[in-house]
């Protein structure tokens, strides 16, 4: 189940496209994803499950063409996806969202863009771009676990627009109100699909209450105080 967010209450322009997916199971999994007690293995598993559900919502309007097939009992007129889709994970946190999206869209192309947020300025820095020279897709779906300040998302959308993509969607588990405002101020034509919208940002640019640093939590690079663990634990 999904619903379009009340963009006026979020302080967004009237035609902003924000979809908040709502479902009891999704809410349950998002709560576990947020939980500080959730370890890296479970965090990765939950992010995959949440991404698959959000991906299902994000692809609900992809173009199809008629497809004639024969079932074991006779002919049938069905449908076949017509849109060429690119998945664009923002390194490194977006990597954990690729597999479930490929389960959903096995023929999608995957183009990587590397961005990190400068700890002092909070501004995005691009360090990797593997887009082909010529744009070869109809729809680009950016994969980023959270939209906090939206700096990296804004920069990535700009790169994709310059490449030639007209339809851009963004899948994220959680977005901040401020991040959405910044995003739609710069790129009003994108569509955002999330599981939740949180109110505030910390001074360090993290969503509050949010889920912490999605990259660190996925790859277990959160600082451990003097604890060494075996690789198979």
Describe this protein's structure.
One of its GO terms (cellular component) is cytoplasm. The chain is of the alpha/beta class and 233 residues long. The protein is 28% helix and 31% strand. The chain has six helices and 14 strands. The protein has helices spanning 24-34, 40-58, 98-104, 151-163, 177-186, 214-219, and strands at 2-4, 17-21, 64-71, 74-81, 85-91, 109-110, 113-117, 124-129, 139-143, 146-147, 167-176, 191-198, 200-201, 207-208. Strands 1, 2, 5, 6, 7, 8, 9, 10, 11 and 12 form a ten-stranded mixed β-sheet that branches. Strands 3-4 form a two-stranded antiparallel ribbon. The relative contact order is 0.16. The model is unreliable at 225-233 (pLDDT under 50).
What's the CATH architecture?
A: 3-Layer(aba) Sandwich
Structural domain count: 1
Shape: globular
Unreliable runs, pLDDT <50, ≥5 residues? 225-233
Sheet/helix structural class:
alpha/beta
Amount of helix: 25-40%
Percent of residues in beta strands? 25-35%
CATH domain topology: Rossmann fold
Q: What's the average pLDDT?
A: 90
Sheet with the most strands, sense and barrel status:
10 strands, mixed
Report the strand count.
14
Counting DSSP H or I runs of 4 or more residues, the number of helices is 6
H and E order? EEHHEEEHEEEEEHEHEEEH
Provide the CATH top-level class. Answer: Alpha Beta
Distance between the termini: 37 Å
């Amino acid at each position: 189940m999904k619903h379009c967010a009340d963009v006026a209450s979020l302080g967004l322009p009237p035609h902003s496209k924000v979809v908040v997916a709502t479902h009891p199971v999704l809410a349950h999994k998002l709560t576990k994803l947020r939980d500080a007690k959730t370890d890296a293995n479970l965090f990765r598993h939950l992010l995959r499950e949440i991404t698959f559900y959000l991906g299902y919502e994000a692809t609900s309007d992809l173009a199809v063409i008629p497809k004639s097939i024969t079932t074991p009992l006779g002919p049938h007129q069905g449908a076949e996806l017509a849109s060429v889709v690119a998945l664009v994970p923002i390194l490194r946190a977006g990597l954990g969202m690729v597999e479930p999206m490929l389960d959903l869209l096995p023929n999608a192309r995957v183009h990587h863009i590397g961005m990190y947020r400068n700890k002092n300025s909070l501004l995005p820095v691009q360090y990797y771009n593997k887009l082909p020279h010529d744009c070869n897709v109809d729809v680009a779906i950016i994969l980023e676990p959270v939209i906090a300040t939206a700096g990296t998302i804004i920069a990535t959308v700009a790169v994709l627009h310059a490449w030639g993509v007209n339809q851009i969607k963004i899948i994220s588990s959680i977005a901040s109100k401020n991040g959405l405002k910044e995003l739609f101020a710069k790129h009003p034509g994108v569509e955002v699909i999330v599981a939740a919208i949180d109110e505030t940002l910390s001074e360090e640019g993290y969503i509050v209450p949010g889920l912490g640093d999605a990259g660190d939590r996925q790859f277990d690079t959160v600082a451990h105080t003097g604890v060494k663990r075996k690789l198979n634990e």
